[in-house]
Amino acid sequence: MLPLVIIAGLLAFVSSKPCDTAGSHHALLLSLNQNLLRSLEGQEGLPNPSVHLGLRLSDYHNLDKESEHLNKLKNDLHDDIQSSLTNNQPVVGSLALYSLALKSSCYDLNTITFTVSESSKTLLTHLKKQMELERENIAFSHRPLTNYYQYSLGLLALCVSGVRVNIHDSHKLIKAVEHELFKHGDAESVDTYAMAGMALQCVKDSGFYAHNAVELDTALSNIKQKLLASRRADGHIGNEFSTGLAVQALLAMGVEVSGCAASMEAMRTSARGNIYHNPMAISQVLPALHKKSYLTLRRKDCLNEDNSLVLEPVDPVVVLPSETKVKMMVEVVMLSGAAAVYSVDVPKGSSLLEGLELLKGKNPGFTFEKESSLWGPYLSVVNGEQARQSDRRYWNLSSDGTALTEGIVDFKIEAAQKITIKNTGY
Ligand code: B12
Predict the structure, then answer these.
(1) What's the pTM?
(2) 95, 81 in Cβ contact below 8 A?
(3) Spatial contact of 288 and 54, defined as CB atoms under 8 Å apart
(4) Domain 21-299 maps to which CATH number in 1.10.10.10, 3.30.460.10, 1.10.260.40, 1.50.10.20?
(5) For domain 325-425, which architecture applies?
(6) How far apart are CA 18 and CA 27, in angstroms?
(7) Residue nearest to atom 91 of ligand 1 (CA)
(8) Which of 375, 395, 411 to mutate to test the pocket of ligand 1 (most atoms within 8 A of CB)?
(9) Which of 233, 317, 318, 341 is a good FRET partner for 296, with 20 to 30 A between their CA atoms?
(10) What residue ranges do the domains of the chain occupy?
């Protein structure tokens, strides 16, 4: 009898863990989660609402640290958005991420207000107004004031907060899908298709576009096809950094977890290879690895949450600059087409930013400035020329002709190469 019980027990154990090495996945998720939590400690500048979302959509929590971060969002991010609103700057993406972050902590959004021209209105009222301004801009100039990624975020945030989404807002997004307007530089923006997919799926589930269900279904099925067609041989959808949002969108649109298995595995491989060291990247990947999407916020109740996530102290690692130097050539192509080429030897493994700083110190003809953003420092001015978002221009970065998939802090110079920094329109 006893051997039978043991065999039955073993069988039950094996069948509860089909080919899935659940243990190793758990350790990986925990370590990503800890890195995300740890990023709050050294955070310079504004608290990051996307990091809050990533933490709150996890299965593991450190409730004290999360509530401390929520307070920072309600003070510092709130003040920053208030000042953008006062200065009439388009702010739909930040407002949307702030709403989603509050929602992820089950905070009552109706208690949050902003005051513009002495009139105090709720966060969601301001978000609706920002969407209206974006929509007007699409009507006049055929593009949003910000971009379709932020427009989708705005729609998603209103929808998951239970606000009846304006059918014209949804219609503009549906048309943009139809006309394939989601671009990132020259390439298609998988991130934007994913965000639009989550927004439109929420609209569908809420019955906010019942008058033309066929049009909405067509857009959703086009988005699903775009995402599936962007799957690379290694499982990533688009690139390493768009895969998290793409998997979130596919899950939200009803694709089975098994249908996303290759992309999940690709993200785990990237995570093991330390590709996701930027907290912003972890914040978009972690929900997907937990098989969740931003849409799950609609039904989040914040009850009976785990509170087991702890941070073990880590010894500070001091990375000394490498003795080995590599040659970094930098070509700057201005708006006029005029090009200048510089060269500097940098310690192997330096960030592009460190390399540019060395070059600036050695070559007075080369200058640059950066701005902060949720992804880190963004290159905004080179040799005195600004590539302005208001003019739909940016400094495009490439290495030996291949566009970089990371910014100036995350990209490391490991071998001799030519970096091209080109004033580019979009
Ligand atoms: C729209 C967009 C752009 C637009 C931004 C302008 C605009 N108004 O539309 C343009 C086309 C200019 C752009 C440029 C670049 N982008 Co971009 N971008 C995005 C996208 C789709 C949405 C960003 C957004 O609006 N977020 C919402 C708002 C609320 O957050 P925010 O932080 O305030 O947004 C600002 C910053 O994100 C900044 N920004 C945009 N891209 C990047 C990239 C980096 C590295 C940094 C530091 C900042 C930054 O512009 C945003 C608007 O003001 C994201 C997708 C994503 N998953 O986040 C990719 C994304 C952030 N971009 C990316 C990259 C790689 C770039 C470039 C480095 C590409 C290149 N080879 O040149 C350049 C930046 C170069 C530089 N000068 O420093 C990667 C970053 C991955 C990483 N690990 O760092 C992402 C994740 C796309 C991807 N999956 O590859 N981008």
Answers:
(1) 0.94
(2) yes
(3) no
(4) 1.50.10.20
(5) Beta Complex (2.170)
(6) 18
(7) 184
(8) 375
(9) 233
(10) 21-299, 325-425
